[in-house]
Structures are given as structure tokens and as C-alpha cells.
Amino acid sequence: SATYKTNIAMITKDKVTEIFCTIDEFDKNLDGELKRNLRLPNQDGNGKRYRNRKGKLSESEIMTILICYHFGTYRNFKEYYQNCIRGCFHKEFPHAVSYNRFVELMPRVFCKMMLFMKLYAFGKCTGITFVDSTMIPVCHNVRRYFNKVFSGLAKNGKGTMGWCHGFKLHLLCNDSGEVITFCLTGANVDDRDSRVWNVFTKVLYGKVFADRGYIKQELFESLFSQGIQLVHGLKAKMKNKLMPMWDKIMLRKRYIIECINELLKNKANLVHSRHRSIHNFIMNLCSALTAYCFFDNKPEALPVYVEKSRQLELFT
């Protein structure tokens, strides 16, 4: 087992270094901008000074540890931190604190993690976008009445895999397999809800390819008035309509976003029922989405250059 963990450390060492360098550069640039544009005094109006001492672990190191957990090496964060970070990677993180202290430090990097994820990790809309949603259960359905951590927040909803008590993650991705943005709602929120699409339309243009669960005349007309065309399949009892061959081809490329959901759940360990606080649940979600952006095996669609420019003429 020791040899196995050592081999894992040797394989992921270069990736850990790459992630840390990227995050550390972003962190330094952000701190420089904040110091130049914001006035952050270390004392109040009465002259009382406040401490601003740096911790043993820098914020870049905390973010790196959170992101590297989602590369599928361990299925339990406590085991990962104690055996990998404080074991195999003790030279890379010589000032690693105890596990309980690290859990307390996690919420401190929430804002920087969100900014890094939005400004650096996420991709841009290319005019070809895929949309889908996936359930995130927080506990087994039998224990939904006894769950106190997410009491009043987690909802009961039904998806393609049955009933779920928790949340629903709505995702947008482009044809290169890059996540554009996301929206987290209760499990009972419909995929066609206007609140979800108010978030999505801020970064969308061109065509959006979806499954049959997004069929709604009001949604199609609302998006079309904003220069966005919703393309989806037809149900069995619906009247058949002519569809351009290019749209039919791109509908078959929806496996991209389905593969993203599969990677987030099975490799990035997005779903588990061991959360003890809402803050750490959100941190787990954000770090999983950020870790996916560093994956080397992201799915992407084969380019279709012949008709792409023609199809987007009316929506650019």
C-alpha cells in the first residue's frame, strides 16, 4: 500500500506543481489589485490596531489542496489529507496544519476560489452550447427527515434516476468541453425555470442544444427574443418538424455534457453524504468544478466548420 501511494504521488506531483503555480500567480495578482484599489486599514477610528498575521498555510496552498483532492486518488477527504498531503506530499506542503484546523480554514478561500473559477478556469461561450442538469443528493432518501445540516435548504425532487433529496446542478458547456457557468438550485426546481435561465442568458448567444426535458414554448420564445435559439429533440407524440442536418448532428454531440456530469460524479467525487456544514458543501462543489477544468481528458465535439458560420450569422 505504501508503494502504491508513492506511485500516485510521483504521478500527480507535476500536476500539483502546475495547479499551485497557476493559483499562486492568480492570488498574487488579485492581492496586488486589491491593495491598489481598496483601502484596507489595520486600525479603526479609535486607533486600535488589528493583527494581520499570515498563517502557516497560504491561501494558494489551501486552494491547491482542495482542488487536487478531486483528481480521483482518494474517496475520503480526511484520508486524503492525512495520508497524501501530510504523508506523500509533506515536502511540497511542509507547513500543513492538522485536519481539524484545515477544515476551519476552508471557508476563508471561498471568494478567491469563486473568482479563480469564474475568471480563469471556466471557458467562454462559442455560439455552440450544451445544457443539462444532474442531481446532487445530500443523504439517502430514507434519512431525509433526519438530516439537520441541510434542513430547509435541500428539497425532494425526481429525476431520470428516481427520487432525490438534495440539490440540482445546472451546467452549461461549450463544444470544447469547457464549463461556461453553473446554477445550483433545490432538487425540485424544473430545468426550464426562468430563474435558472436568467443566470444562463447573461453568458449565452447562438444555439443551445438540450434534451427533451427542456421543451417549452414560452422558454423557446423568450430565448429567441434575446438572440438565442434552443434546439431539442421531439417527443413521441409531438408533430414532426423539419430540422437542419447541422442541428441534428450537434444534438448527437450532447454526450459532451453528459460526460462532464459523469466525470464530476465518479472521478471528482462531487456527490457524497458526509457533509457536516453548508460552507464545506459549497467549497466541495466549487473545487470539483475547478478541478475539472484541469483534467486532461475533457470531452469535446469534432469541429463542424462547413455550416457553423452560416448557422451563427443570425445570432451574432
Question: Main attributes?
Answer:
single chain; 316 residues; alpha/beta; 11 helices; 6 strands; 43% helix; 14% strand; disordered N terminus; disordered C terminus
Tell me the layout of helices and strands:
Layout: H1 2-37, H2 59-68, H3 77-88, H4 99-105, H5 110-121, E1 128-137, E2 155-159, E3 162-174, E4 179-186, H6 194-200, E5 206-209, H7 217-225, E6 228-231, H8 245-251, H9 255-267, H10 278-292, H11 305-311
Parallel strand pairs: 1-5, 5-6
Antiparallel strand pairs: 1-3, 2-3, 3-4
Helix pairs in contact: 1-2, 2-10, 5-10
Task: Summarize the structure in short.
This protein is α/β, with parallel strands linked by helices. The chain has 11 helices and 6 strands. β5 (206-209), α7 (217-225) and β6 (228-231) form a beta-alpha-beta unit.
Question: Would you give an account of this structure?
Answer:
Helices cover 43% and strands 14% of the residues. It is an alpha/beta fold. Strand 3 and strand 4 (179-186) form a beta hairpin. The radius of gyration is 22 Å and the shape is globular. It starts with a helix and ends in a 5-residue tail after the last helix. The model is unreliable at 1-11, 304-310 and 312-316 (pLDDT under 50).
